């Protein structure tokens, strides 16, 4: 789901390909229509957003934003309709370390066309820090 400020909920993105701190995925929620971008250096981000039902940025659809969470040396998120490209250096909580080839996730959790939330373990209570709990 898109947050009120226009940012995507990264946990809902289905990963199609990823290498370390850069990934490309599909956002298949009903509110995917629109275009948004966030490019950041340290904690200062420049955002652009052209979507319905989001709050306006300082210059209508663009503006600088200081963001403390998900801070990285370099941060990038581009969203156009259902395609999402994210990257960060170094990896952070919004852009985890992933290895995925043509939808097949290899690291940190194996699977096929899984969401970032599932890979990080946010959608499976039995998944804790890379290990499956025995039931």
Q: Can you tell me about this structure?
A:
The chain is mainly beta and 135 residues long. It has one domain. The chain has one helix spanning 116-120, and strands at 13-20, 22-27, 35-42, 44-50, 62-66, 72-80, 83-89, 98-101, 104-107, 111-112, 127-128, 131-132. The chain has a ten-stranded antiparallel beta sheet with strand order 5-4-3-6-7-2-1-8-9-10. A hairpin with a 2-residue loop joins strand 8 and strand 9. The radius of gyration is 15 Å and the shape is globular.
Quick structural gist:
With 135 residues, the chain is mainly beta. Helices cover 4% and strands 47% of the residues. Residues 126-135 have low confidence and may be disordered.
Strand-helix topology:
Blueprint: E1 13-20, E2 22-27, E3 35-42, E4 44-50, E5 62-66, E6 72-80, E7 83-89, E8 98-101, E9 104-107, E10 111-112, H1 116-120, E11 127-128, E12 131-132
Antiparallel strand pairs: 1-2, 1-8, 2-7, 3-4, 3-6, 4-5, 6-7, 8-9, 9-10, 11-12
Key traits:
two-stranded antiparallel ribbon, globular, 12 strands, mainly beta, 135 residues, 10-stranded antiparallel beta sheet, 1 helix, disordered C terminus
């Amino acid at each position: 789901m898109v947050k009120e400020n226009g940012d995507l909920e990264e946990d809902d993105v289905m990963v199609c390909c990823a290498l370390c701190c850069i990934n490309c995925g599909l956002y298949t929620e009903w509110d995917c229509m629109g275009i948004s971008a966030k490019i950041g250096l340290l904690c200062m981000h420049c955002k652009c957003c052209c979507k319905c039902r989001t709050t306006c940025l300082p210059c209508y659809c663009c503006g600088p934003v200081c963001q403390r969470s998900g801070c990285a040396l370099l941060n990038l998120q581009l969203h156009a309709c259902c395609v999402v490209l994210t990257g960060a250096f170094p990896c952070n909580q919004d852009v985890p370390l992933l290895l995925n080839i043509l939808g097949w996730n290899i690291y940190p959790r194996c699977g096929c066309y899984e969401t970032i939330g599932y890979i990080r373990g946010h959608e499976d209570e039995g998944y804790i820090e890379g290990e499956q709990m025995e039931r």
